[in-house]
Specification:
Blueprint: H1 2-5, H2 25-37, H3 51-56, E1 59-64, E2 67-73, H4 78-87, E3 89-93, E4 98-103, H5 107-114, E5 126-133, E6 139-149, E7 152-157, H6 162-176, E8 182-185, E9 189-195, H7 199-204, E10 219-224, E11 227-232, E12 241-247, H8 248-261, E13 266-268, H9 271-280, H10 307-312, H11 318-327, E14 331-338, E15 348-351, E16 357-366, E17 373-380, E18 389-394, E19 397-404
Parallel strand pairs: 3-13
Antiparallel strand pairs: 1-2, 3-9, 4-7, 4-8, 5-6, 6-7, 9-12, 10-11, 11-12, 14-17, 14-19, 15-16, 15-18, 16-17, 18-19
Helix pairs in contact: 4-9
Length: 415
């Protein structure tokens, strides 16, 4: 606990999931094997602190961002797991995510150069969704920033972006001439996400800390049976929930207590259902829905640009983003609903006469909660109005769809 004692945190998954309503468990497994195969290479896979626990609970483990990660569990289908998280609570191992600590008198200024967030005015012990931006306003990675003090920040970044993020951060420190910055990656810390309407009930059973004090985006140092863990009221499912940073050696014990003392409220959940949950909530997956050629405005995330930042600028890509805020963009991220075969990542989108190509799907799957196919993608500005009829190119056949409001499932954040 030495590192955190000095202080007074996206997700992973794949949209390539088979038709949940129609595939058998064996078909699901075969599809998932193919979906995650492109993450495999000859490098030995890293293991999270919960690796053995996953195996003991019948997890199907697959390579993801250099780690062996649980994608599904034999006790629940993806549909069953989805419904469980929406009605009870699911526990996700996200220890592969990269946890950073930044300290120093130049840290706030540095973060205000590389993100569009009003970091300076962020309240202590609160978190905000943000992104690293390149000089063209493109998204290098989407992140969570937690402010402890003006010179201490905790940031969570995507595992698959680790090498690129580290190179970006080093380059930007040199470019902006900011020297009083210390940066450490919490290699010896695990990260779990407890999500669902009964998440607070389950976690409250392990602590005397009043969790109602933590609203969405708040962070607290929560005592749990002799230890103290940093707990953020956040997550990437659209449900109420918590992300908990724990020393590796304590992660297994904490998780077992949570599973054992929750009286069956909490069940383990894999990355496949996490992907379905985040898409239902209209949340982006970096590398599919976001990349370095896409700006926050094109991604329909203009709200991440703070009001003060819009006026003062001073961050990477400001000129591009200010122009897009004023005059709009040629393409935007929108949601879609459809029936029949689902439109998935890479499906081309045509206007309703099937002549003009107007966009592409970036994520898509059958939604267990909505009961229809859902997707998100980028289309030309003139076709983004809700209710606009479009056609998806699915296996060389045109299938109808409709531009729809996101999120597809109402969020239930505790505010």
């Amino acid at each position: 606990m030495a590192l955190f004692s000095k202080l007074p945190n996206r997700i992973a998954g794949s949209s390539c999931i088979c038709n949940l309503a129609r595939c058998s468990r064996s078909q699901n497994k075969a599809n998932l094997n193919r979906a995650f195969a492109n993450n495999a290479n000859s490098t030995p896979l890293l293991k999270t602190p919960l690796y053995d626990l996953h195996l003991a609970h019948g997890a199907s483990m697959h390579p993801f961002a250099g780690f062996s990660m649980p994608i599904t569990y034999e006790t629940q289908s993806i549909v069953e797991s989805n419904k469980w998280v929406r009605s009870q609570a699911g526990l996700f191992d996200v220890s592969h995510m990269v946890q950073h600590i930044f300290t120093g008198k130049d840290v706030t200024a540095f973060l205000e150069r590389i993100t569009p967030t009003d970091v300076r005015e962020l309240a202590p012990y609160s978190s905000v969704y943000s992104m690293f931006l390149n000089n063209n306003g493109g998204i290098v990675d989407d992140i969570i920033i937690t402010k402890h003090t003006d010179d201490k920040y905790y940031i969570v970044t995507n595992a698959a972006c680790r090498a690129g993020d580290l190179a970006f951060l080093e380059e930007q420190k040199k470019l902006h001439g900011l020297s009083d910055i210390s940066h450490e990656i919490l290699e010896e810390w695990g990260l779990i996400a407890l999500q669902g309407p009964r998440a607070a009930e389950a976690l409250q059973g392990l602590t005397d800390f009043d969790l109602t004090q933590l609203k969405f985006g708040n962070v607290g140092l929560v005592p749990v049976k002799g230890s103290k863990y940093w707990v953020s009221r956040s997550g990437y499912t659209g449900e109420d929930g918590f992300e908990i940073s724990i020393p590796n050696e304590e992660t297994l014990g904490f998780t077992e207590r949570l599973l054992g003392e929750s009286h069956s409220v909490v069940k383990l959940a894999g990355l496949a259902v996490r992907d379905a949950l985040r898409l239902e909530a209209g949340l982006c997956l970096y590398g599919q829905d976001l990349d370095e050629t896409t700006t926050p405005i094109q991604a329909s995330l203009s709200w991440v640009v703070g009001k003060r930042r819009r006026l003062e600028g001073g961050f990477n890509g400001y000129e591009v983003i200010a122009e897009e805020l004023k005059n709009g963009t040629s393409r935007r991220r929108v949601g879609f609903l459809s029936d029949g075969p689902p439109a998935r990542e890479g499906s081309k989108i045509y206007e309703e006469t099937s002549v003009k190509l107007i966009g592409v799907v970036t994520s898509g799957l059958p939604s267990p909660t909505v009961g229809r196919n859902i997707a998100m993608g980028y289309i030309e500005k003139s076709f983004m109005k809700r209710g606009t009829e479009v056609l998806f190119d699915i296996r060389s056949r045109k299938r109808p769809g409709t531009v729809a409001k996101m999120p597809f499932v109402p969020t239930k954040y505790y505010r």
